[in-house]
């Protein structure tokens, strides 16, 4: 079981309010990702759930019991830290066994669980090494191993992949997703990388300045961002946000259109513009186009290879059904 | 600043550096050498640098005359006792300041440092009075406490700077893993800080060993350490250079060996972490 | 950043150290202050049991106006200043030298550091007898070898001799700290200066010396604190005669030799004030370092 409810949680550090007031429900077995720019309070939120910080006000309820005053060790949660936080003076075996040792489990049971975790995580050959002798990915797996042996009611991940190189990150992302499918335990995952959020989450919580901007499944957030912040944050490359007379034509203060929802043509279209920089990825081509009458250049995604040279005149047509409209407060208009 | 140099330059540097090094070390070398001479050879003109009859008799005389072993034992007890006591008091304090810092932490650290700067002579009489009142004069326990107190700021500071280098996340991980505060300090912090704790012990052992104000003023025959032992040789009595050298060698030899091991940590400990 | 629980645990664990040091500081300090306003001459029958006469600031005034006060301040300044100049100048040169590559670096470094580990009483005695003895000391042999008349170091050049002994003890400290500082200098900075056409002297003056400035300040401040209270070196060599009576030693004599506790305590208060003035400067630097 791992149902976590945050009820009017507030957090202040001295005079600085990090989280004004926040409600959130996390269902048992869900993979929830907290995402937002750095300093948005997502790590603080995770540490509040872990019990590493006190809430200033409000309640944290874990599995129906008020855990607000419960010390971290007795909340039944396990955490994987950004720096892995392995114990450098202990072997991998001892690292993984440490929570069991603290729980005063019988040595035979400790051994069984450690070996089982090592098997799952492909660490069996490394059990007698020290963390210092392992690669980044292996350390990450040891940290996960240390978390799973406790059989916690929920896992907390604090930007666990940010210290890995790009290739490894993709691999570990898959491994963590697979782990979640197998264990079916609640996981709360903090990241600033919206790609990680989109690929792994059942439910994404977008945070900004301690305030939840939107909660929803990845595709909900992609299809119906509640405001301009979420619209700009979710999706890569970023959604084009257009203000001014062009937006007014659609009865909105701001309109948004994703790069993949604009058609580009050399002959005709709604907006006329000139090609700036183009980025060729092979699978796609991104064009930065300066359109007449628009302040900012637009990003356009064209599938496959498109050869359009710098300075060429082109025409862009947004697909109306994919256009997002926002009012003066930045909120979505339906 | 390591840079490529020519061999010629290296030869010259080597010669100059060795000459200066030997010059600085000479008094110690000369003391050790003289301790193996007879009294007559010790004052021979010209000085004898190597070719003389090596003898151990000075050491025997010194031991017999002043009971070296008792002073040595007192030094070990005073330096060791005060250092260990200091570590016991300082580890929890340093843990608090390094891992649960508050707005006042910096002020407390600096205040602790400032107690170290209190001139001893300014409080000599009050301390003597307290010692007399509690029958602590010339006792090892009294001096252990005093030496612990004068070195406590340095111990706290050194441990603090070492603890600061341990990531808080590791201690938090232990907390999440169910470790109590005691277990967190015992199983995680202490083993990780072993090198730091060891060098703190080493440096403070040396400082306590060489402390020569309180040990001279608060002890007499019973609890006197080697500083007092050697001070008893300050009034000359006939030919005594060789015996003085033997006594000096015996007083400094243990700490010279320890000191060479601790030279790296010395900088940090004595500058309160301001230079690493 | 932590929880209420860990904060209260922290306060509890800090308590023993704080209470001990607070007691160590406040109790004797209060007593010294108390005595400094009293007439207290145990040899003339004054005792705590019978109560001491309040004399106001008389002890303070008498300590300042005594004929030995200003000479003791002068001696203190000469010794502290002399040792600082010698150790810092030689320390910088030695640090630069030891930083160069040469054979046997480790051994030479050990040789240079060794004097720091010699206890003050030993170094004072060894220097006094085996080096500075006007008849049998090494220096006397050396002087005679060159046909000169041996010098009675500790009586004729007493301050210089004390400075020499103390400098020998503290040179390793200065060297070691400055060497650490030199080694932390980025070699690319020096190479950049060389590319910019700066000759060796300019590189020393514009890059190395400013880089060392902080370390030099720290060396000066820490040494000053220790040097102001040097005791054993004077106790063992001259016993305060021949113009080597420092402020510390003067107070010591007032308290221990002439048993004038009130006067000595007033002197102690002066010494504490003096030390605190220097301490404030040191704290500033160390405190700044804490924030980084």
Outline the structure in words.
The complex is a heterotrimer of chains A (334), B (276) and C (292). The model of chain A has no long low-confidence stretch (mean pLDDT 90). In chain A, α2 (92-102) crosses α3 (107-120) and α2 packs parallel to α4. Chain A has nine helices and 19 strands. Chain A is α+β, with helices and mostly antiparallel strands and 334 residues long. Chain A has two domains: 4-230, 3-Layer(aba) Sandwich (Rossmann fold); 238-333, OB fold (Dihydrolipoamide Acetyltransferase, E2P), CATH 2.40.50.140. In chain A, β15 and β16 form a beta hairpin. The longest helix of chain A is centred in the middle third of the chain and has 18 residues, at 166-183. With 276 residues, chain B is mainly alpha-helical. Chain B contains 14 helices and no strands. The model of chain C has no long low-confidence stretch (mean pLDDT 84). Chain A: It is a peripheral membrane protein. Chain A: Keywords: ATP-binding, Nucleotide-binding, Transport.
Structural key phrases:
heterotrimer; B: 276 residues; mainly alpha; MetI-like fold; 2 domains; 14 helices; 0% strand; globular; C: 292 residues; two-stranded antiparallel sheet; 13 helices
Task: Please render the helix and strand layout as text.
The complex is a heterotrimer of chains A (334), B (276) and C (292).
Chain A: E1 4-13, E2 16-26, E3 31-35, H1 42-50, E4 57-62, E5 65-66, E6 77-80, H2 92-102, H3 107-120, H4 136-148, E7 154-158, H5 166-183, E8 186-191, H6 194-200, E9 203-208, E10 211-216, H7 218-223, H8 228-233, E11 240-243, H9 245-248, E12 254-257, E13 262-265, E14 271-280, E15 284-291, E16 298-303, E17 313-318, E18 324-326, E19 332-333
Parallel strand pairs in A: 3-8, 3-9, 6-7, 7-8
Antiparallel strand pairs in A: 1-2, 1-4, 4-5, 9-10, 11-12, 12-18, 13-17, 14-15, 14-17, 15-16, 18-19
Helix pairs in contact in A: 2-3, 2-4
Chain B: H1 7-34, H2 39-42, H3 57-66, H4 68-99, H5 105-116, H6 124-133, H7 140-164, H8 168-176, H9 181-192, H10 194-210, H11 214-218, H12 226-231, H13 241-261, H14 263-270
Chain C: H1 4-36, E1 38-39, E2 53-54, H2 58-65, H3 69-99, H4 105-113, H5 120-131, H6 138-145, H7 153-156, H8 158-183, H9 187-195, H10 200-228, H11 232-236, H12 247-257, H13 261-291
Antiparallel strand pairs in C: 1-2
